[in-house]
Amino acid sequence: MSIVEAPLIYHTAPDGRSWYELGLYSADTLGRRIERNVAAWPDTTLLYLSKTRGYRTTLGAAVAESQRIASAFLDLGVKRGERIAVMLPSWHECLMCYLAGLHAGFIIVPMVTIFGVREVSFIMKNCNARVLVCPGVWKGKDFRPIAHEMLDAGLADKVVMVDDDVIDPRFESWTDFAARGKAPAEHGPNRPDDVCFILYTSGTTADPKGARHTHNTLGAEWESDCYTGEDHPVGLNMMPAGHTAGLLAMVRPFFTGEEAYVMDEWDRDVAVEAIATYKVTRSGGTPFHLAGMIESADAKHLSLASLQTYIIGATNVTPALVEAGLERGAKSCRCYGSTEHPTISAAKTADPDRQRAFTDGRLLRGITVRLVDDDGKDVAPGEEGEIWSNGPELIVGYTDPVKNADSFVDNIWFKTGDVGRLDKDGYLSITDRKKDIIIRGGENISSREVEEALFQHPAVSEVAVVPLPDKVMGEKVLAFIVLNDGAKSFTVADALTYFQQIGMAKQKTPERVEIIGEMPRTPIGKIRKQDLKAIAKKFVA
Description:
This protein is of the alpha/beta class. It has 17 helices and 28 strands.
């Protein structure tokens, strides 16, 4: 089945020069670049710190194995340029899918494992992925009903299940699948400006947006100047593989040569023990992760001092948290980016403590931003404005042409929906956001998506969803609800039961529900969410 996608937006620098002219794009695909890179450090360790699928290998062995996995996908019937949906934790099998795609020319569509049937169905249909790779059961979640639904609905032709005990004949076990790859596949005929990953992000709309990255946009990110100054880097990846940050962390060692340790689920004790044992020098996560590590390190009397760089992003990155990490030896550096434009700015280890604690760093190499007012006019230096970004890492557009029209200006500038200011020294600070999202533990949750789901419940007359500030998760989902006549109540428990029934991810369930008599509104009748956000802040004051 063919699909119609929006044309690719091959953007340039603001002055019209191409990224090739500026030396920021390569004539090689990522598969060829990775193979060439790893020849310099084939024996570097890659270790998965998983309770269920622990695995040790090397960077060189991983690349060789991924080329056989690419052959297995070809034998399964996947053609070069077709899409493979990968809904796996940060396991070795997930990395194999990612590298196989980059080598052979498949387009990989990562999905976080928290997704339910609703989200997976939308993505499979939107991207036309004919193969789904997923676990059987992991962390108590059974993925088999999701896999059955994709097959029954005609949204997948094949399911490869990473499970040691696959008995359903409709699924192929990873072991049987991998056995198809008897010889390494040849390099794909794809070009460096071809799409290699489609990453779905929950933005301000109900449906996820398919953000298209090419070999060159992601290559520019992996070869950026985000990390500097480490002679023998050792990395710890604690982000989920289906998330942009997790994808970037999983593949980064193949560009840096760093010794790599990978977690498949968050456990703060495992993280601090890994840092202490393996002398981890670089990592990254959200405020939730850093706060947990600080608490665990204090309780276990372990040191975080080997962490020369801890890149911290998402929401509510407080100066106090950065300073708390520094007190324990971990040099935290705030950063700013998104699925669409992975790293726009980042503080560096060498930056003064105040800039690392109070700003989101300077723009990375090749990146330009404009700060504009509501009319799209540039604001005066030092004033706040919406951030429009441009750079070699920026996506080549969404799959949906309507979303492209809303998000890109002159096919050069990307409207981030975030508000910030640049100081006289070039440090960027994010001060607010226009996008109607909740960032829970680093995951974007669309307020509108949650609202539309709740609005279908018979007890709900009106609903408005806003972020509830939380010192652990950053933000949680708070729903203000006006009940229908005759409805007596609607609780968090009711919301949980309802979300389970409609197949939405548990993480999107409201964690606080406030019943109100009427919504605050503007003179034209629009709900004043800023008033509700102010109330939400009082709940945690």
